[in-house]
Every structure is written in structure tokens, then in C-alpha cells.
Amino acid sequence: MEPPDPRKAGSKQEEGFGVPPRRAADLGTVPSLRRSNSSLCKVRRPQNLFSNSEKQENLSSWIPENIKKKECMYFVESAKLSDAGKVVCECGYTRQQHLEEATRPHTLQGKEWDPKKHVQEMPTDAFGDIVFTGLGQKVGKYVRLSQDTAPSVIYHLMTQYWGLDVPNLLISVTGGAKDFNMKPRLKSVFRRGLVKVAQTTGAWIITGGSHTGVMKQVGEAVRDFTLSSSHNEGEVVTVGVATWGTVHNREDLIHPSGGFPAEYVMDEEGQGHLTCLDNNHSHFILVDDGTHGRYGVEIPLRTRLEKFISEQTKERGGVAIKIPIVCVVLEGGPGTLHTIYNAITNGTPCVVVEGSGRVADVIAQVASLPISEITISRIQQSLSVFFQEMFETLTEGRVVEWTKKIQDIVRRRQLLTIFREGKDGQQDVDVAILQALLKASRSHDHFGHENWDHQLKLAVAWNRVDIARSEIFTDERQWKPSELHPMMTAALISNKPEFVKLFLENGVRLKEFVTWDTLLYLYQNLDPSCLFHSKLQKVLAEEPERPVCAPPAPRVQMHHVAQVLRELLGDFTQPLYPRPRTGDRPRLLLPMPNIKLNVQGVSLRSLYKRSPGHVAFTMDPVRDLLIWAIIQNRRELAEIIWAQSQDCIAAALACSKILKELSKEEEDTDSLEEMLALADEYEHRAIGVFTECHRKDEDRAQKLLTRVSEAWGKTTCLQLALEAKDMKFVSHGGVQAFLTKVWWGQLCVDNGLWRVVLCMLAFPLLYTSLISFRERRLQTGRGLLRVRAFFNAPVVIFHLNILSYFAFLCLFAYVLMVDFQPTPSWCEYLIYFWLFSLVCEELRQLFYDPDEFGLMKMALLYFSDFWNKLDIGAILLFIVGLTCRLIPALLYPGRIILSLDFIMFCLRLMHIFTISKTLGPKIIIVKRMMKDVFFFLFLLAVWVVSFGVAKQAILIHNESRVDWIFRGVVYQSYLTIFGQMPAYIDGVNFSLDHCSPNGTDPYKPKCPESDAVRHEPAFPEWLTVILLCLYLLFTNILLLNLLIAMFNYTFQQVQEHTDQIWKFQRHDLIEEYHGRPPAPPPFILLSHLHLFIKRAVLKIPARRRKQLKSKLEKNEEAALLSWEMYLKESYLQSQQHQQKQRPEQKIQDIGNKISTVVDLLEMESLKRSGSTGQRLASLEEQVAQMSRALHWVVKALRDSGFGSEEGVPAPAPQKASEGQDLELDGRQKEEGVGDPHHVSARHLLYPSSHVSRFPVPNEKVPWETEFLIYDPPFYTDDRKDKGLVDPVGNALEPLSRISYNAVDGPTDRRSFHGVYAVQDGLPLNPMGRTGLRGRGALRCFGPNHTLQPVITRWRRNQDGAICRKSIKKMLEVLVVKHSLSEHWALPGGSRDPGEILPRKLKQVLRREFWSSFQNLLTQGTEVYKGYVDDPRNTDNAWIETVAISIHFSDQSDTDLKRLNSHLHACDPGTAVRWQVVDKRIPLYANHKAILQKVAALYGAFY
């Protein structure tokens, strides 16, 4: 990777300061560029609405307009020949490969070839889909583009046209470009870990894309994953960024209008010095600079692209993060070291895989050493081991450069992670990569707890709950539940159930988390692919437009959600969320700060709590979250939330109902099956919990069935189960026991039916002990209460109605057959009266509305029942027959209609028999078979009509009588099926006596075609016989047997569930007779009269019997729900136990244990080998020390005159064994603190310029240390304020007039560190070499003096008391920040000549306060005076500062109040604030050191 321009370093966005993010659309390159969200659910992307051809057409038109290639426009013959010995241009291409105009006589004839002038951009001609010939059908994407293409355009292509989801992580893999060997186990661990981290986090892997080296390793890792994974696990996005000019067989990819697909041939044998693309990568970006055979062209564009992607913000669930990037290093050479250095300098964490070879092993070997021990000799020694093939060619300057880079890399240990397979407890590369990112995040300076928030946001974005458990939720950080609420929202929206479970385990309470606004936000962020979202959009589309004057409101409101939910749950429920009244606005329950869910500058508003009592409805947070999860068919999430629910049986049944209703409209078969399976699962959960309850206490369990649940729309569990058609639940023994109890009313259920019938016929027997009652007062009493209780029992009412109905049918039959006179008899009048009572009962059922549903709803419910429709049909038909019967002319038709009506009344008996356990299931089977017959008639009609028409047309000529046409076509054809063969069809029974020749006889059919002379049939007998045979074959044999088979299938299907279906339908009859008046028709009219007086005259409202729906007192209901919740926990525990006892689970557990044991054995083996290696390394070091000691002894003896020079043995060079672990004592020394040399002043790239410093390792910093090859460049910036700066350039004449170590006019050139040396007319930095001569960007040579005022006050709470942390008082410091800077700073800096106050301080203070502040400075305390390690320092110019502390100990200090009133940022890009003093605040490093001294001065917390 290439380092970014330091001038742009200050423009990076802030982390956590509310700065709005720079969106991709603001980049100005592609207007339509926008962010897209990824989802683990099935997301219907917009481009999927188009066909492949349309997508290809869009791509073919967009790419040439926005993406260019490069072509050489001027052929200049090169001195070098191609591999084939042909003459080539300076660009590397032959003359034939150039455009025609490039080879013509040119205006630039004779000039040198310049790529900037002679290479031009033109529309690209290579893009589309790529297929590797002979290597499977995997289709990738590719594009050839110019090296100057804007990264925003490439990103737009990848996310919008290639359809890639925005990544949660960017993994840049770098290393050796040539094939190298890795240990088999390390290779396996690396491949498995890399793909696992990419697949679990939704990352993009970016490599060089060629089929060699580290790129080949990555490709094979992806291939192994693809072969071993299922289709649902998704594809790993692997992007190869390669140089177009080095791709072998690239001509196969050239298709001006796009290759869909382009077939690419991998030819490794004939590739020569070129490379083939790797067939396991999914996307290729081929970078073109117009040349051929030149490697490394893609590196700058790849660096810019990775940087651009890492600056993009991905928002999910209201939480936004900048896409993190990590660099993974395998093996590698000098280029890889440069890439690592740039990545570390740029703040990108790197994971170096030890054991992969070369650079990776060199860095891994010294990574744990103090910087002082990483010397040139040590690096030279490591290079001799790991770079044996090129060690001899390395110059001293190259070794020095490597040493300096490795020192800088190791110095920032927080960004460097060494993966040592099997050591330090490291097992997987994926964990190492994610830990590296968290470690880097942890090292960043943030205000307050934002650092931990950032880490948690990353873990949630990656969906790695294991990392969160091990790295974030530790004893080091105690999380408040409110701090987890934003991430809880994100985990819910992005469907990450494991994180939801983790947050619940760590103190999140759903009652505190789910507020009105939180719930509204969740529904506004529904998964667009779910069916509920589309239903909600339909409701919104029907919403009337808001008036212009009305205040703006979110499009989705909770009453819209309630409307859709009521459609799903049923109209028998009340709306779960009410429609707000005019002027209703949720108010704050308590003042909440504006919590910034902020990573890289993106914030989400806090969600407010509603005011209790302001909206009149019951808000159950667990219910609300459960519904939100269920409507999106999120199984794991719903399971976790349901386990938290209190009203769990009702919740499970409601979930079953919602899912079954949604499944009716779901078009996707997979989703439909998932919904039905989940609905069945929740029905089983309801059954399981109810079984536990019924086993413990039957009465309490039955109360749960009929309790009115306020949370679920004032309905009951039993009603929910019936509406959801949960037959298994309704057929449960406890539910059936309750229904039986209702059926028998106040009678004991063990009364025999014969006793009931006997008492019905002779009610005085009730005063005996023949009938037993449940209640003691009825059992011992002998009054009218027993009679009333008996005749109010549904079982008695039912049998009385049966007797009444049978009497009605007998009387009706008698009148029709015996006593149907022109003038109605008294029997017939009795039938009319009886029918009137039946009509009154039907009207009562229609208007009976105890739940206040309304007339329309009651009518819909009434007519939804088949038997009610049959009753209405029979009554209407009776009225028609009665009308005809009363008209003398229509007496006979009236009798016919009444006779047909009698059939309908008889069919009504089937409903009565459904209560019978024997007949009830058979009636259900008959109803199902009727449906089979209905569909069978369609098939039969085809054959009947086709055969009848053909037969009629062949036999009879021009039959005009419609009735005889119907007989011949339909009637005779239908009877033929049952064996009645039509006459004359075979000519055997032909007789003119049985037919009418001209069709004039209305009682005879027309004669068939015949010979008038011979009186013989003239139609083709053989044809009609064949048609008859075929007709009988298909109808009698095929279709009738098909009908029998359908009947058999229906019978078998229903027979399996007969008991469930009968028990389910039994409820309807019980409920009907439970609410029916006790008197049977026609005496029921007395009950109707009584009811009319109560409702119409006395205005007494209808009430439902308490047995089916009861509202409990609050205390009783709370106790009942607590008991239910306790038994739910028992049920869940038993389920877990059963799950563990399953054979499959036991096998899996045994397998996991075996895997764990194997891993432990391998770890033990590795530890032993590592221990052996450490002991050998320790022994080697001791031998080396002994050798040095003996050498010293020999040298001392020789210097004393003993021995001679010739016999002195030379010490053998030390060689570190490969894989040596230098952490002998487990030390881990932190660098940077107390570093004896300046560090920032030796950064290789000088800020705000393209000048590179000469590399200066630590040991070569002091001027006293010899450094013969030291040759730093000279650089002096041309500043705008030329009158106030020293001369520009390296000429000594203008510099000779400067007086050093003295006050030189307005410039004080004296150093706080005493007299400094002056060499060749230039001062020398007292702290040593910096790698750069000249003045740099500073104002003058020698010391540049600055002033840093440290303005502090005590941090106080609302009561005015000083805040404390760890017993110590807490300070607040005044800091400023410019919009182009990442860090905050103290309000100090350089001063203009003759001025006291720094320029930066003047920018934030009003002029009238300047003089007062000067007085404060004179009264302040000096806390530091000396050298400042600044990246602008050079060998000849450096910064020295004086830090003065100005502390306001009293909050009522007038100077403090005046200071606050005069704080004013004159520049809109400058911010000023009071900030709590903490070591994590994002200040410049040298400013933090000063602030630490101030905190120590006052004994404050730091």
C-alpha cells in the first residue's frame, strides 16, 4: 500500500464529535453514488427487478461513459526487444498492437516517450462476466480501467452494478508475489481463519488477483470454503486488483460491448514473465496505464480505493460505522515491508503471520523486543537468515532503511498483531484479525466511553459475539444497561440474535429498552423483503394526505401497524396501538442526553420514552418486540424474546395466528414453509406450557384459557387458538376437560346421559338424587335452583332442541304427505309458528354482540358459518314455498318447493350430530369428500359432453328439440356410465317403432340416420362402438377409480386427525348452546320476549357468560401470570434437557468433546515444542554471552602483553534459528513512553510535502554516533509570510547574517537546552539527527519558540460539587480544534514577533480580553520549558515551548466568567470547548504530556 498524502491527513473525519459524515454522493464524481445497507436476511435488491439482459444493457451503456482505459498514442521504438524478439515501443507493446494513428508520422516525432503526454484515455473495451474455461461454471466480474479512475466510480460500480453489499470489514491481503511454501498446518489454519472472518463479518478480501504467491493462497482458501459450504452460507467476496499489462491471455477479455461471459484460459506454462488471473477470485479490477509487462501499476489505485472504502460509512439499525480495514501479511519482500510501513503510518492495523517466511518472519522475530534492541546489526542478522538469496546484494543504506521502518512499525505495537500459530493461546486467524482491529480501536483516543462503544459497534457489525464476550464484556469495563440500548436496536434490526441474548445477559431490560419511539424506529426499519412491510405500505398508501399546515410526522405510525396486526390477528381483537388524537405527541419520561451512536462522525438521535397515561393503552415491551420479530419470520430472535414473555401461552398462540395469516399471502415457497413450521413450533410451545400448568393446577390452567388478555387486544387464549385453527392445542386434554365442564354446565360430568334424558322427560326426578351437581348448595338443595341449573346446562338445552327439531321434522313431513290442504290446517299453522320461532332464534344469534364488535362484524361472523348459511337458505326457501302455497294457482309448485325445503331442514341434522364422537368425524369426512366430488365433476363433464355431442351428431341429423338434445348429449351419456347403454348405437335394436322419423312425436326420440328403402341404419356402427368403448374405458375405469382413490386419500388424511378435528369443531357447538336460551322452539319465543324487554325496554347491555371469557382482578391476574411464567421456565428447562438427551445431540456433544481434547493435545504438543525452542534459544544466548566474555578476556590478556595477534580466534557470528521465540521472559515493554530520542521528528515523510527524510534508526540519532552514509536532503518551505521568516534555499550567504545562540533582532534564537552547535553555518538540533536538513516548514533556523497556555478548572456536577474519579479530583481543560485536523489541541502555538499571546489563542478570544489574559499568563505556573518532538522539526530547525498553567479553582471566579463570556471562534472552522482531562482524550501527543504534568501539579485525575 502507498501512504496517503500527508497534506490530506488533517482532513480525515472526526471520531465522535458530531461532524457530519462525508457521504459518497458528495464526492462529486458520480452523482448517483449512494450508500447501501447489507442484510443477513433475504433482501430484494432493486436490480433484481430487471432481467439479466436489462442489467447487461445498463452495464454496457454506463461503463464506457464512466470508465476509461489507456492507450499509447505515439510509437517510439525501444532499445529492448520483447520475449519473442520483436521490436516494441517504450510502452512495451508491438507496432501491431498500437492504434493506427500511433504509428503514423507524428507531430511529436523525435521527442522522448512520455507517458503523461503520449498515453491517452478512451472508453474501456474489457468488462462484463468472466468464466474460466475448464474450471467450472463459476462466473465472476471484471473491468479494465485507467489508473487515474476515481475510487468513487469504482466503488459505485461494485455496489450498484456488480450488486455487492457494502462490507462490514475490508481485509487487504499482501505478501509474496511469487509462490512460497508454508507449513501444512499453518496453511490450513490461515485458510480456514481468513475465509471464516470474511464470511461471518461480511467482509471484502482485496488481493493482487493473480494465480501466484499470497493471492493463490487466498484463492485456494475461498475455493475450499465454497466446496465445503452450503448454498445458504453465501459467497465470499474476493476482489483482485491486478495490472492489466501483466495479465496473460488478456486479449480473451476484450469485448467492446461487454463480455457476458468472456471465457478466460489459464495457461501457466506459457505465461512467461506475465501472470494468469486466479480462478477463485470473484471480482477483478484490472488497472491499465497503457504499458505492457510492468508490475506494480495497480498499487497506487489499490491504496486509494482501500482508503476510499475505509472512509465510507455503513449504517445499519441506526448505528453507523466507518468501514474498518485490516492488512494481513504473508511472507513478502521489500515491497511488502513498504506496504506494512505505509499501513501502520496510516493507522491501519496489520496482522503478520509468523512462519510464512521472509519479511513476515523478520518482523515477527523482533516485534516483542524493546526499540533499543532493534538495531541495525540485529536486523542484518535476521535478513541473513530469512533473505539468504538476496542478502549479499543488500547495501548498507538499504539495511538502515529496513531497520528504521521496522522500528517505526514495532513502535506502534497497538497496530501490530503477530499471529503465532499454537503460541500465546492463539488458535484461529479470524480471531487474531478481529482482535487486531479491536486493539487498534482501543488505542485510538476518544472522549468518554466512545472507545468502548466503537469496539462494540465493530463486533456487532461483524456479528462476532465470541469476540464481544472475550474482548469487550470483561471486568475492565462495566456497562450500564442504557449504554447498550443503541446496540440492542442495531442487533435487532440486523437480525443478530446472539448479540440480543448477550445484551440481555448483561443487564438490558426490555421494559426500559422498548419505548414508544424505539418501537416506531424498529417498524420504520423493517426488512423490505418481508410481507408485513408490503402490507404496511398498502395501508400507508390508503392514508389520506396530511394538510399542509399540519406538523410533519414520520410516515409510519403505530396505529398503521395496529391496523395491519388486527387484520392478521382477527377483528375479534382490539387494536394493539391506538390512533393518536389530534395534538398528541409523546412526551419525555425523563431527560435523556443526546446519546451519540457515533463512529467516525455519524450520530443517531436518542429515542425518547413516552409519557405513561398519555396514550391510553397497555404497552407490553416483550409483546411488542415479539410481534416485530415474528412478522419478519425471525425464528431465533423470536425465541429469545418469547422466553422473556409473561403472558407466554397467549403470546405463542398469537404468533401462530400471525404466521398462518401471513403464510396465506406469501408467494415465496421457502418462506411459506418456514412460516408454517414456525407457527407449528409456537403451537407446540403453547401446548407445552399449558401442559405444565394443567399438570400443576387444573383450575388455574382453565383460568388461563378464559382470562381476558389486555396485552393481546382483550381476547383469550382459547379464542386465539380457535381463530388460528390450532387443533392440537384445542384437542389438548386440559382444554377438552374445560369444554366438557362448560358443556355440562353446573351438572357433574359423570352423570349418565340416560339420567339427563329421563329428567328431561320427567323433571320431578330432579328433586331426587338421580342427578348430581358440582356445587354443594345445589347438591343439598331441593328448590327451583336445581331445576334452573339443570335446564340451563348446555347439554340439556342441546337435547331439548334435538327433541324439538325431530318433532318439527315429523310434523313437517306429516303435513307434506298427509295433510296438505288448499286451506292450511291447524298442523300447518303450527309449523308456521314453529318456523317463526326458528327465525327469531337466528335473528338473536345475528344481533347478539356481547363483545361490541358491531353489526357488520357480527354479520360477517354469522355468515362465515356454513350451517348458518344453510339455515338462512332453508328459511328463505320455506318463505318462497309458503308464498306460492297461499296463491291458489301456485298451490302445487308451492308444495314442490316445500318438499325440497324439507331436504334442507333434514341436512341440518348433520350439524347436530357433530357432537357425537362416532358420527362427528364421519360428517367431517363427508364434507371433505364433497369437495373431491366437486372437482371430479369437472373432469367427468369433459368426457360426458365430448362423447355425448359426438354421439348425437353421428346418430341424429338436425335434432331441434332442446329437451331431447339434453337427453341425448348429457342424460344418456351420464347413464351409460352406470350400465344403461343407449339404443341404436350398434344398430342391433334398430326399430322405427321406437322413434320418430321426423322428430314430430314429443314422446319419442328422433330416429338415427337410416336407409329409407332398406329400413336399416346408415351411420357407421363401428365408429360409434369404438367411441362407446373408449368412453366407458376412461369414465368407468379411469375416472371412477380416480374418484375412489381421492376418497380413500381424503379418508386416510382425515382419519389420522379425526380426533383433533372433532375436538376442535366440538367447541363451536358447545359455544352455540352455551349462549342459547334454555327453552326449545317454539317455546323459545318466551325467552326471546324476555330478552327483548331487557335489551330494548330496560336497556340492559348484553354480557358474555363468564365461563368462556372472564376479566380477572389485577392482583389475581398478576399472580396467575407469575405462576404461568414460573412454569414456562420449567418447560424451557425440560426442553433443554430433552434436547441434550436426543441421540443426535449426544453424538454432537461427544464430537465436540473429542475435538476439544484433540485441540488440547495439539496445544500441549506445541507448548512442549515451544518450551524446547525457548530453552534452546536461552542456551544459545548464554553461549553467545560466554563467547563474548571469553573474547573480552582474550583481548584484555593480549592488550596486557600476553599472547600474539595471530593466534586470536575470531568470535563466530550469531545466527538466530528460524522460528526462534525471543520472548524468553514473557516481557512486553511499552515503547514511546520515555523514548530517549525524538520520534515524530524522524517520520520518513515530511508533513505537507512530498519530501522523504533520510532514514535514521534509533542508534544513529545522536550527533556523536558515527553515521558515514548519512546524507539527508535539504528542504525549506516557501511560506507566505516571507517578511517574518528566514531566507529560503541552501545558499550560505544569506544565512551567514543570522546570529545563533542569541537574540537576533525580533527573533530569540537561544535554546532552553543551552548552547547548540553550529556546523557549516547551520545550527544542529540538540536532540540529534532527523533525516532532513534545512528549515522545513518552520519560520526560522534554530529554535522556534512557542507558548502553550494550559487553562483548567475543576469539573463540577449540577450541585456545584467537584467531581472525583478514583478518589482524585477531575479537571477540565480548554481545547480548540480546526475542521481540517483530527485532534484537539491546547490554545497555544507560535507568536508573532513582539507579541505575547499565540495566534491560535487570539482566534478564540475576543480582542477586549487579550490584555486581561496577559495578566493571567504572568500569574500562571510554568509546568514545562524545553524541546518539543514535532514532525516539522529538522536537523537545523526545531520547536521549543513554554507551558504555563492557568487554573481557576473557584467556579465563581470573575476571571473565569469573563473568559467564558469572551470565548469566541472567529473562524467557523474552529471549535472551542471545555473538556474533561483524561488520558484517552484525542489531543496531540506532546500536548497530552504537558497536560499530564498539569494534572500531577494539582493532584488531579489523569
Number of helices: 48
* SS strand fraction: 5-15%
Strand order of the largest sheet: 10-5-6-11-9-8-7-14-15-16
Provide the structure class. alpha/beta
Determine Rg (CA atoms, Å): 46 Å
Distance separating the two termini = 37 Å
Shape: elongated
Mean pLDDT: 81
Annotation, overall tally of beta strands: 32
Largest sheet: 10 strands, mixed
Helix content: 40-55%
Low-confidence stretches: 1-50, 583-617, 1212-1234
Provide structural commentary.
The protein has 1502 residues and is an alpha/beta fold. Strand 14 (325-330), helix 7 (334-345) and strand 15 form a beta-alpha-beta unit. The radius of gyration is 46 Å and the shape is elongated. Mean pLDDT is 81; it is low at 1-50, 583-617 and 1212-1234.
Features:
alpha/beta; six-stranded mixed sheet; single chain; 45% helix; 1502 residues; ten-stranded mixed sheet
In short:
The chain has 1502 residues and is of the alpha/beta class. It has 48 helices and 32 strands. The chain has a 10-stranded mixed beta sheet, with helices on both faces. Strands 25, 28, 29, 30, 31 and 32 form a 6-stranded mixed beta sheet that branches. Strands 1-4 form a two-stranded antiparallel sheet.
Per-chain topology:
Blueprint: H1 52-66, E1 68-72, E2 77-81, E3 87-89, H2 115-118, E4 119-123, E5 127-132, E6 139-146, H3 151-161, E7 169-175, H4 184-201, E8 203-207, H5 213-228, E9 237-243, E10 259-264, E11 283-288, H6 298-311, E12 313-316, E13 319-322, E14 325-330, H7 334-345, E15 350-353, H8 358-366, H9 376-386, H10 396-411, E16 416-419, H11 429-443, H12 450-462, H13 465-472, H14 481-493, H15 497-505, H16 510-513, H17 516-524, H18 531-542, H19 558-569, H20 621-630, H21 635-642, H22 648-665, H23 669-696, H24 698-706, H25 717-723, H26 727-730, H27 733-743, H28 753-761, H29 776-780, H30 784-791, H31 794-817, H32 826-847, H33 855-863, H34 866-886, H35 891-907, H36 909-912, H37 919-955, H38 962-977, E17 1010-1011, E18 1016-1017, H39 1021-1056, H40 1058-1074, H41 1084-1097, H42 1114-1141, H43 1143-1199, E19 1274-1276, H44 1292-1295, E20 1303-1304, E21 1307-1308, E22 1318-1319, E23 1322-1323, E24 1333-1336, E25 1342-1354, E26 1364-1365, E27 1368-1369, E28 1371-1378, E29 1389-1390, H45 1399-1402, H46 1410-1419, E30 1421-1428, E31 1437-1448, H47 1454-1462, E32 1470-1476, H48 1485-1498
Parallel strand pairs: 5-10, 6-11, 7-8, 7-14, 8-9, 9-11, 14-15, 15-16, 19-24, 25-31
Antiparallel strand pairs: 1-4, 2-3, 5-6, 12-13, 17-18, 20-21, 22-23, 25-28, 25-29, 26-27, 28-32, 30-31
Helix pairs in contact: 3-6, 4-5, 4-11, 7-10, 8-9, 11-12, 12-13, 12-14, 14-15, 18-19, 20-21, 20-22, 22-23, 22-25, 23-24, 23-42, 27-40, 31-32, 31-35, 34-35, 37-38, 37-39, 37-40
